[in-house]
Amino acid sequence: MTEAPASVRRPPAPNPAERAKTIATRGGRATIMPTVDRAGCDAERVEPVLHHVHHSGSVSILLPDEHPMVHACRQTQRGELAVMAELADHAPVALREPVRGLLWITGWLRPLTAVSARARAISIAEQRPDHRLLDVGHGVTLLRLTPASLVLADAEGTHSLRPHVFSAAPPDPFHHYEAEWLRHLESDHPDVVDQLARHLPDQLRTGRIRPLSLDRYGLRLRVESPTGDHDVRLAFSQAVDSPPQLATELQRLLGCPFLRGQHRP
């Protein structure tokens, strides 16, 4: 996708830690891979049975008991394996390039004791019930990835984060229903997308315009054209954190005449 030149001032966006926390909270697809010390682990890239990123940045990972990565952790002198978890943030609408961002969490993977594993599975279930958590201790091992560093790569750039900075950041207030909202906009309101297109440069308006993402600072559109994919951020007049505020800002972007006389608070 194309990016604006460095000399062009970017519209406001959530800071890197907030964007990383939002990706982690959405719970998209994850893969795990050993880093420097494989400790005899032949696994290259593993998709876990289930993963859950905690507020602190630690990651709970479920793998079959007989998985090579579980054996590798138990065989090392310290009982842990250096790994990296890759979390992909996929767009909720069908795009030809669906990945909006990647979050890499690097650290140490260690199996939990039976007691700790049960306690952690219960804690996860309270936040996101999942029948696969019932298999912990019955053919599935629960491991904990303790983070040493995090790296975020998305349309705003690439950023390295310390765990304590990630832990302190909140996710975007719209992360719970962004996916449903964008799919609704795409399928039921193509006229709204067409009206939003008036904010795009003239040379991009002939491409296929899709809703890409939503956060408290604005809306991003993806233009799929023969020359490639182009992302454009449409900034709100102010940061928002509730559906009524979002509706007002969307009306502003659409040029609602009833809002023209209103001043920004």
Gist?
The protein is of the alpha+beta class. The protein has helices at 16-26, 68-75, 114-127, 163-168, 178-188, 190-196, 243-254; strands at residues 30-34, 50-53, 59-64, 81-90, 99-111, 140-154, 157-161, 208-215, 218-225, 228-235. Strands 1, 2, 3, 4, 5, 6 and 7 form a 7-stranded antiparallel β-sheet that branches. The chain has a 3-stranded antiparallel β-sheet with strand order 8-9-10.
Characterization of the model:
26% of the residues lie in helices and 31% in strands. Strand 4 and strand 5 form a beta hairpin. The chain has 265 residues and is an alpha+beta fold. The model is unreliable at 2-7 and 258-265 (pLDDT under 50). Strands 1, 2, 3, 4, 5, 6 and 7 form a seven-stranded antiparallel beta sheet that branches.
Please outline the helices and strands.
Elements: H1 16-26, E1 30-34, E2 50-53, E3 59-64, H2 68-75, E4 81-90, E5 99-111, H3 114-127, E6 140-154, E7 157-161, H4 163-168, H5 178-188, H6 190-196, E8 208-215, E9 218-225, E10 228-235, H7 243-254
Antiparallel strand pairs: 1-4, 2-3, 3-6, 4-5, 5-6, 6-7, 8-9, 9-10
